[in-house]
Specification:
The protein has 126 residues and is mainly beta. Helices cover 0% and strands 50% of the residues.
C-alpha cells in the first residue's frame, strides 16, 4: 500500500506562485509514475501534469504548460508542483496520484493511477 499526503495549498492572488508537495509513505514509489490532477467545483477531475520514475520525462496539460513545473525527489519520496502565473481558473482541489504505468498507458487518464492523496485546496483570487 502507498499513502500520499499533499501539502502547500492555500490562497494566492492572480499572477502569484505556489508550490504544492506530495509525500509518499508505505511501499516505495520510486519506480512509479506520479501525477497531479485537479478538480474544481462542479467539474470533473482533470489531468495537470505527470512525471516518470526518474524525473526525466514530464507531460503537462495544455492549460498549464509553461506555467507549472512538476518535479520529484525520490530520496524524499516527494513530488512537487511549482505553479507560477496563477489564474483564477486554476482554483481547484489538487490531487497527487501514483501509478505503475506501462509503455503506451495514457498519463492523462486518472484510471491508470492506483493511489491517490486526499487533496489540497488552491484558491486564486482575481
Amino acid at each position: 500500500q502507498v499513502q500520499l499526503v499533499e501539502s502547500g495549498g492555500g490562497l494566492v492572488q492572480a499572477g502569484g506562485s505556489l508550490r504544492v508537495s506530495c509525500t509518499a509513505s508505505g511501499r516505495t514509489v520510486s519506480n512509479y509514475y506520479m501525477g497531479w490532477f485537479r478538480q474544481a467545483p462542479g467539474k470533473e477531475r482533470e489531468f495537470v501534469a505527470a512525471i516518470n520514475w526518474s524525473g526525466g520525462s514530464t507531460v503537462y496539460a495544455g492549460s498549464v504548460k509553461g506555467r507549472f513545473t512538476i518535479s520529484r525527489d525520490n530520496a524524499k519520496a516527494t513530488v512537487y508542483l511549482q505553479m507560477n502565473s496563477l489564474k483564477p481558473e486554476d482554483t481547484a482541489v489538487y490531487y497527487c496520484a501514483a501509478g505503475r504505468l506501462r509503455f503506451g498507458d495514457s498519463k492523462q487518464n486518472l484510471r491508470n493511477y492506483e493511489y491517490w492523496g486526499q487533496g489540497t485546496q488552491v484558491t486564486v483570487s482575481s
